[in-house]
Specification:
single chain, 184 residues, mainly alpha, 78% helix
Length: 184
C-alpha cells in the first residue's frame, strides 16, 4: 500500500526530471529542432512511461488504503479540477495567442492526483489534521506558481519564456517530494 504510493510518487518526480531534460534539449529560443528524433524521442518515451507507471501505482496505492473519513469526496476534487481547467483554458483563449491545452491539462491533472492522495492519506489516518492542511498549503502554492507561469510564459520574451516554462516542472517535483517526506 504505502510502497505503491511511494514508488508511484517517485516515478512522477523522475517523470518531471526527464521532461525537464527533454524540454531543455528540444526547445531553444529561435531554434527549430526535431523533438522526436533519436535520443529526444527515446527520452520522451521514457518520460511518458515514468508518468504512466507513477499514476497507476499512486492510484493503486490509494485504492488499497482503508479510508474512513475524508475531508473532501473524490467527486468534489474532480469537479474542482475540471472547473479549474476550464477557467484556465478560457483565460488563454481570450487573453493569449492560443490555448495551452496540454500544459493546462497536465497541471490540473497533477493537482487533482496529489489532492486525492493527500485526502486519502488523511482519511486513512496516516497524516494528522494539521499536517493535512500543511500539505494542502504546499500543494496550492505549487499549483499557483505553476499555473501563473504556464499561463503567462507565452507573453514573455523568448529567453525568459524558455526558462519560465521549466520552473513549473521543478515546482511540481519539489512539491511531490515534500508531500512524500511529510506523509511517510
Amino acid at each position: 500500500m504505502h510502497r505503491s504510493i511511494i514508488i508511484g510518487q517517485l516515478s512522477l518526480i523522475v517523470c518531471c526530471i526527464f521532461y525537464l531534460i527533454w524540454w531543455s534539449l528540444c526547445y531553444k529560443p529561435n531554434v527549430v529542432v526535431d523533438r522526436l528524433d533519436g535520443i529526444r524521442g527515446a527520452l520522451l518515451l521514457i518520460t511518458a512511461l515514468c508518468g504512466l507507471v507513477g499514476v497507476c501505482l499512486s492510484v493503486h496505492g490509494m485504492g488499497m488504503l482503508s479510508v474512513q473519513h475524508l475531508m473532501f469526496s473524490g467527486s468534489k476534487i474532480i469537479g474542482v479540477g475540471i472547473l479549474t481547467y476550464i477557467v484556465l483554458l478560457l483565460i488563454t483563449v481570450f487573453g493569449f495567442y492560443r490555448p495551452v491545452t496540454t500544459e493546462l491539462l497536465l497541471i490540473t491533472g497533477w493537482m487533482m492526483l496529489e489532492t486525492c492522495l493527500i485526502n486519502d492519506l488523511y482519511g486513512a489516518q496516516i497524516v494528522s489534521s494539521s499536517r493535512y492542511w500543511g500539505l494542502m498549503v504546499v500543494l496550492v502554492l505549487a499549483f499557483f506558481v505553476s499555473m501563473v507561469l504556464y499561463v503567462l510564459y507565452y507573453r514573455m520574451e523568448p529567453m525568459k519564456a524558455y526558462y519560465a516554462a521549466m520552473v513549473p516542472l521543478i515546482t511540481e517535483a519539489i512539491s511531490m517530494a515534500i508531500v512524500l517526506i511529510l506523509s511517510f
